[in-house]
Amino acid sequence: MKTTLPTHTTPDANSIVKDPKKSGDGGVEIITTSLSHAINMARKHSLWPMPMGISCCAIEMMAVAGSRFDIARFGAEVFRFSPRQADLMIVAGTLTHKMAPVVRRVYDQMPEPKWVIAMGACLITGGMFDSYPVVQGLDHIVPVDVYVPGCPPRPEGVLWALMQVQKKAQESGKIYPVSRALDYKPDMPLQPVPTDEKPTKEKTMILNMGPQHPSTHGVLRLVLEIDGEDIVKAYPHVGYLHRGFEKIAEHRTYHQFIPYTDRLDYLAPLSNNIAYAMAIEKLMDIEITDRNKHIRTMCCELSRISGHLLSLGTFAMDVGAMSVFFHTFQQREYIYNLQESLTGTRMTTSYSRIGGLARDLPEGWTDQLKVFLDGVSKVIDEVEQLLNKNPIWVDRLADICVIDEEMCISYGLTGPMLRAAGVPYDLRKEHPYLAYDQFDFDIPVGTKGDSYDRYLVRLLEMRESVKILKQAADRVPGGPLNSDLPGVILPEKEKVYSSMEELICHFKTISGGFSPKPGQSYCSIESPKGEIGFYAVSDGGPNAWRLRIKSPSFTNLQVLSEILPGNKIADVVTAVASIDPVMGESDR
Ligand code: SF4
User: What's the pLDDT tens digit per position in 65-83?
Assistant: First the structure.
């Protein structure tokens, strides 16, 4: 039966009655307050958040669980992935029309009282994606309690939002407060994507996994046909994060498109920026300076370590080894520190420019880099000790979801997936670019091509990246950073702030852009996930006439329908983690 009690204010010192005889020795202490207040105080201190990670912002949301931000201090570390067990939904990422019904459906399943935090510019206004597949704000489908601005917001922003929700929870004067969900109706049509797949045998059933599932590593949806625990067929579905990158490129100048490349593989924005800049430089026959090549090489390797650290931490978490995640996320924070001092931001770096870089290395950066390299090497050792011979880890990975050389080649797989199958193909060696030909490093390869080999190859690749970075940090060449390209290269920031002519030049170069002569180019590099390439076609205008992106995650994911049948449901988790996809670049 519902009871409505009169509301009271927060208990103060006067409302705490102490027994004078027993106080100080653990005696009786009485607080007078209302039942609703006491219940809401409990609610405030025991929020159970459910992460709804859709894209880039989700990585900063995950960072709050790490030791640097430590959401546990705010009483909300019990992350739940079932809506029935959560009262706070943290939505982080770009909401597409395809994903919107999923978010609404999950929200509807949460018990009352419930709250929603919307993280990032995309959920406020659509952010930088004014494109047809993207919903222009989360409040079109669910009521939002707190917005966190930024692209992405820093993890501190999530903690601030959490405190705002705690305030709301405490301030409600009712025992049974309800959210605005009851009288809130979506103001846009929500059409769920139907499951067209049907069982192919009498005994089998269809099981849907994702697109909101912690172990699908983003908004990947897997439709599985199962016979008991055995997988009979698997159908991967992509498109829940389709943001229309390639079309957007046709409506932005070449420089304006650089920030979009950050959001492809948002775990390696530095190397995406570089691959795109190199494609446009090839289109325009631009020769870049030695210093630029050298710094870009360091950025690519830093990205590789950053991407692999996340892959490793989440892979181990999927198999139940939580502590690895804390170790690897701590190291990623050191990388973010380096990125922030180099580019001015933690994650979405936009560091490369056509023919140059946004800024030079800050003083002492290479020294900080060396300190990091020593630290991360120790963590790699620790992870090896924790996992390499761990019986649970080996049992769950060895001989599971084998992808051999022939399958890799027929599906066009690249990166660690291909090398785990024993093929020593790496663009850094096959077609050396930037300054890679100046460094000594090896290409680790596997022997079987199973999930274990894919784990091991990434681990060993981090060691090789450390090796490259140690060599690079000691011999950064002097000379100019940017090529001499008036009208293409932006003026230095200090001059833009102090000279009207330079300000106008900056403004014109960004908004009006430059026009390469008609032609086409393709350039690809070895990103942490494989070959990422940009194919640009110019018709002589300031925007690409056409831009196509070859992303490794999209290609690598195709193999799932081949390798999952014959395995158990539990192996889906390790198979996806071993592929290490990122949906930002899959749904480009
Ligand atoms: S584009 Fe910006 S706001 Fe949108 S999801 Fe990515 S980081 Fe967040």
Answer: 988 999 998 888 888 889 9
**Cα of 263 from ligand 1 centre, angstroms:** 7
Residue from 423, 427, 426 nearest 453 by CA: 423
Least confident of 168-172, 324-328, 373-377, 533-537: 168-172
Residue 249 and residue 156 share a domain: no
Q: What is the pLDDT of residues 274-296, one digit of tens each?
A: 999 999 999 999 999 999 999 99
Question: What CA–CA distances, in Å, run from 469 to 172, 282, 305, 439, 462?
Answer: 54, 26, 10, 9, 10
To test the pocket of ligand 1, the residue of 55, 242, 272, 582 to mutate (highest count of ligand atoms within 8 Å of its CB) is 55
Interaxial angle between packed helices 365-387 and 322-343, expressed in degrees from 0 to 180 and rounded to the nearest 10: 170
Centroid of ligand 1 to alpha carbon of 165 (angstroms): 22
Rounded distance between C-alpha atoms, residue 48 and residue 73, angstroms: 14
CATH of the domain at 98: 3.40.50.12280
Pocket test for ligand 1, best of 56, 131, 148, 248 (most atoms within 8 A of CB): 56
Report the pLDDT averaged over residues 251-279.
Answer: 95
How many angstroms separate the alpha carbon of residue 266 from the centre of ligand 1? Answer: 9
- Residue 347 — φ and ψ, nearest 5°? -120, -60
- How many angstroms does the Cα of residue 77 sit away from the middle of ligand 1? 23
CATH number at residue 258: 1.10.645.10
Rounded CA-CA distance 420/405 in Å is 9
Would you say residue 139 lies in a domain? yes
Total structural domains within the chain: 2
Question: Got the DSSP string for 94-112?
Answer: PPBTTTHHHHHHHHHHSPS
Paired with 543 in beta bridges are 253
Cα of 332 to ligand 1 centre, how many Å? 19
Task: Note whether residue 217 is domain-resident.
Answer: no
Range of the domain at 353: 245-474+516-586
Which of 171, 188, 208 lies at the terminal end of a domain, its last residue?
A: 171
In a domain, 579, yes or no: yes
The answer to whether residues 118 and 146 touch, using CB atoms and an 8 Å cutoff, is: yes
Claim: this prediction has a pTM higher than 0.90: yes
Asked if 527 and 384 sit in the same domain, the reply is yes
In a domain, 481, yes or no: no
On whether both 346 and 467 belong to a single domain, the answer is: yes
pLDDT in tens, 88-114: 999 999 999 999 999 999 999 999 899
Mutating to test ligand 1, I would choose from 52, 62, 94 the residue with most ligand atoms within 8 A of its C-beta, which is 94
CB under 6 Å to ligand 1: residues? 55-57, 93-94, 120-122, 127-128, 151-152, 263, 348
Coil, helix or strand at residue 420: helix
The answer to whether 586 and 555 are in contact (CB under 8 A) is: no
- Determine the distance separating the centroid of ligand 1 and the alpha carbon of 80, expressed in angstroms: 23
Which of 153, 171, 189 corresponds to the end of one domain? 171
Mutate which of 95, 348, 587, 588 for ligand 1? The one with the most ligand atoms within 8 Å of its CB, which is 348
Instruction: Report the chain's C-alpha Rg in angstroms.
Output: 26
Distances (CA, A) of 178 to 38, 116, 146, 575: 17, 13, 16, 41
